[in-house]
Amino acid sequence: MTDDPVISRKGAGWFFQWQKWPLNAKVDRIREEKDSVKAELTLKARIEDQDVHLYQSVLNLTSQTARRTAVKHLGELHGEDSFRPDWTEVLETVCLEVLRRLRMGEPLRIIRGDAEDYPLALSWRLKPLVLDRHPTILFGEGGLAKSWFALWCGLLGTQGVSRCGLTPVTGNWLYLDWETSEEEVNRRVAMLKNGERSLANAEILYRRCAASLADELDEIMDEITGCSVQGIVIDSLLGACGGGELQKEATPGAFFRAFRRLNVGGLIIGHTQKGSLEKTVFGSAFWQNQARSVWEAVGFAEPGEREIYIGLKHNKVNIGRKHTPLAFRFAFSDDDSSVVVSQADYTEIPGMEKGVSLGKRIQDYLKAGTASLGQIAESLESGKATVAVTLSRLKKRGLVLQVGEGWGVPSHETG
């Protein structure tokens, strides 16, 4: 029998199981601070096939004084127990092993660009929106149905249903909610299912959150592992940061470090300053820079109408290429019992044209029929010379063609 404990991963922490004593220890809620590493230590005794609680406390793993204090306290608490572990050995082993593993990090790997080891095709959770094991931020002003849209995406993912230009890889999704309630999310799921037959059997895992993502990381990682979760919705960034100062670099840094530990694809809902001229996530470049993909939501809902239009512009991507705009229509029934989601025309959503290339706008305009250079320039509010240069470039790529005195798109583009 070895004297060393068996050590295994447990969420974001570690689990120790001794053989020479009926003792186990769990170390989680690990926080690396400037000059210390603190964690929550839980000790239990295995007596007659049941775990008996012995001790639970936050411990500074790097402090000899903290270890000695804990050893003394454990001796006073359990000095008369039927078994007497060497508490100094227990605490030293736990602290040193956790520190060693934290500092060791991930193993060194050799990357050769081998397609057999790592497929060259991009790995998607919900194409073209959510990459597998990477964070995607969807941000915009309030009232644009971003939460409705993200929930709908999660339901598509769990059912493997392709809709409106979105193609999922089937797998479990988890909705992490800092904004509303279980009752409201359940109501929305029911309405979305009532509006779409293909989602009749859809369901989504749900967790109501209060602390920051970093503070709830251990429990969330356990749920992701136990339920084989492959995609998550975070609603929203503000809550997931626990009220931190969003404009400061340390806040997004802490959030993305926690997200990276989850190892799943994520659709993260963010907001922007209402009415600001330059739209970024919370008005801060830190969020934009650290996310792998960022989509901006633009939309409108006419007063008194039961429809919401939401358009998505792909502002930034680090993996792959920017995607063309997406647009959706959410139509609510008069009795609020169902909502139907359908594809919309992004050109009809005010504000979507900004950030969309002139070439893309020309192609979409010509899908309605042929037009002259002058007509194109006038309709798209662009100079004739600029339009002429863009048409020439598109023609070389086979994306437009000349039709008599005008311009059009190939027949396959109009289908």
Keywords, separated by commas or semicolons:
alpha/beta, Arc Repressor Mutant, subunit A, 30% helix, 28% strand, elongated
Describe the model.
This protein is α/β, with parallel strands linked by helices. It folds into 3 domains: 6-104; 124-348, Rossmann fold, CATH 3.40.50; 358-414, Winged helix-like DNA-binding domain superfamily/Winged helix DNA-binding domain (Arc Repressor Mutant, subunit A, Orthogonal Bundle). Helix content is 30%, strand content 28%. The chain contains 11 helices and 19 strands. It has helices at 64-78, 87-104, 146-159, 182-195, 217-226, 237-240, 250-262, 285-290, 358-366, 373-379, 384-396; strands at residues 6-10, 13-17, 23-32, 37-47, 50-60, 124-127, 130-131, 135-140, 167-168, 172-177, 205-208, 229-235, 265-271, 293-300, 307-317, 326-332, 339-343, 401-403, 406-408. The strands form 4 sheets. A 9-stranded mixed beta sheet has the order 11-10-12-13-8-14-15-16-17, with helices on both faces. It has a 5-stranded antiparallel beta sheet with strand order 1-2-3-4-5. Strand 3 and strand 4 (37-47) form a beta hairpin. Helix 1 (64-78) runs antiparallel to helix 2 and helix 3 crosses helix 4. It starts with 5 loop residues before the first strand and ends in a 7-residue tail after the last strand. The mean pLDDT is 89.
